[in-house]
Design brief:
single chain, five-stranded antiparallel β-sheet, 491 residues, alpha/beta, 22% helix
Length: 491
């Protein structure tokens, strides 16, 4: 779903509680300013790997190119990275500038991030010495704490695909019926926080009190990776830990968390562009090859020990608005690469499934179709290959979409649902009432399928479908339809 204008978002933004960061600050001796300083961060960690970041500050004459080097002591190996050309020889890691960030003025800083493996039985010691263009930077990092992982055995069930159903460990069918909790996709990149409104236990319990059993959590690629344009208090370790904390609370109330990539990097100014910004500030037509595979590698490593968490690969693809033919659009959707009409290299759905499965994660994965996930007409033809067999089709349905009638659902959704699980990750309407969603819920109930309402936020429903007027769960006139229906079918 697209979002209300920024003025509306600012009006409803709430306070955010930040959890502890794992950044290792640059510590310098009193007196002269060092030639350079480096902040090294472990922003996420799992059994055999971690996500790291460096922030380099140049305090000497301006540089036209830079190369940072440091050594690992515990067998760590860089596997991929961003905002630098990463390489490793033995224990020595080198990060050299990309073509677009080689200039580093006096006093200027640049950030880069990476994913790395580490021995399961070893520690993850912080490098003790950093060199920028051969000059030693004056840093004295301290060991970083081990992050707290979300509970792997909460009250939410572990899920997998069986035929065209989602089932728990006992084989019982699990329909995902719930809400979206928007905020994590836009607050951080706009510089105002991490969540829009409270996400404490009381606020999550209010969702559960509607008899919801699933919560979809939209995320921002740049905030998770801690890229340099994101305020440090809202990105990297702070953002990741906040997401993990919310996931744990959702699970503690027996609900399935669906972590979803909403906004991504990549400049697109073509048909139906949401913004001209290269940064992750609006919905782009497809995920980008530069950062999205790294995002999903990190997310999958973070949650792979907890199969109660589902992964929604990309919010609302719309390569069909950029390309000239439907075939080109579906090929772009699955295979990525150079796509007609899209100026950046695209990561296709197959690339993202591969990134998730390469970590060993077997979590359920959702993939939405074309036309903002509203068109599933050729989803089966272009279905990505999933070695884990846990792939789900995702659909979004609003009253203003093309496929918004029983006839379309019968002709395009029913054939997909006959072969794989189908989840309506977003349903809603712009009328501030619930006539359309009532029809959607009836059709999906009749076909034993899943659906989640957009959105559990206190916006004016005329600027975007908002289920509540207060985070205590007070429904809007639109939200009454979903609340009363969930309570009726889950007494």
């Amino acid at each position: 779903m697209r979002h209300p204008p920024r003025s509306v978002l600012l009006a409803v933004s709430g306070a955010v509680a930040l959890v502890g960061t794992m950044t290792i600050p640059a510590v310098t001796a009193r007196g002269a300013t060092p030639a350079c300083s480096v902040e090294y961060s472990v922003t996420g960690q799992w059994d055999t790997g971690f996500q790291g970041a460096v922030k380099i500050t140049n305090n000497t004459a301006a540089l036209s190119g830079w190369s940072l080097s440091f050594d690992f002591a515990d067998g760590q190996k860089v596997t991929q990275g961003w905002n630098a050309k990463w390489s490793q020889s033995g224990t020595t890691v080198t990060a050299a500038n990309e073509s677009y960030n080689g200039s580093l003025a006096t006093g200027a800083s640049v950030g880069a991030g990476f994913l790395a493996s580490r021995p399961a039985s070893g520690s993850n010691a912080v490098p003790t010495s950093f060199k920028l263009n051969g000059t030693t930077c004056n840093v004295d990092p301290e060991p970083s704490p081990t992050p707290t992982e979300p509970p792997a055995t909460g009250t939410a069930p572990a899920l997998h695909v069986s035929g065209n159903k989602l089932v728990d460990a006992s084989g019982a069918t699990r329909r995902l019926l719930g809400v979206n909790r928007s905020g994590g996709e836009f607050m951080c990149v706009q510089g105002y926080g991490i969540w829009d409104g409270p996400v404490d236990d009381t606020a999550v319990k209010a969702i559960a009190d509607w008899k919801a059993n699933a919560v979809r959590i939209p995320l921002n690629e740049e905030c998770w990776l801690g890229l340099s344009n994101i305020k440090s208090e809202y990105g990297g370790a702070n953002y990741i830990n906040a997401v993990k904390d919310l996931v744990a609370r959702v699970e503690a109330h027996g609900m399935t968390p669906i972590v979803e990539l909403h906004w991504t990097y990549g400049q697109y100014t073509g048909n139906s562009a949401g913004c001209s910004d290269v940064h992750a500030t609006c919905q782009k037509p497809m995920p980008d090859a530069q950062y999205t595979p790294s995002f999903w590698s990190s997310v999958a490593n973070t949650f792979k020990g907890d199969q109660a968490v589902a992964f929604d690969l990309f919010n609302e693809p719309y390569p069909d608005r950029a390309t000239s033919t439907t075939t080109q659009a579906w090929q772009c959707w699955r295979d990525g690469g150079t796509c007609p009409g899209i100026g950046y290299q695209v990561a296709g759905m197959q690339d993202l499934v591969d990134a998730v499965r390469a970590t060993g994660a077997r979590n359920v994965v959702l993939a939405g179709g074309l036309a903002y996930s509203n068109d599933l007409s050729q989803w089966l033809t272009y279905k990505p290959s999933d070695p884990a067999g846990n792939l789900v089709a995702a659909y979004h349905g609003y009253n203003f979409n093309t496929c918004a009638s029983e006839s379309c659902w019968n002709s395009t959704l029913a054939p997909v649902a006959a072969q794989v699980p189908l989840v309506a990750g977003e349903i809603g309407e712009s009328t501030c009432s619930h006539g359309f969603v009532d029809r959607v819920m009836k059709w999906f109930d009749d076909h034993n399928l899943s659906y989640l309402g957009w959105t559990w936020n206190t916006w004016d429903c005329s600027s975007g479908p908002s289920l509540i007027s207060n985070y205590d769960g007070t429904p809007t006139s639109y939200g009454i339809g979903l609340r009363d229906h969930l309570r009726a079918i889950n007494p």
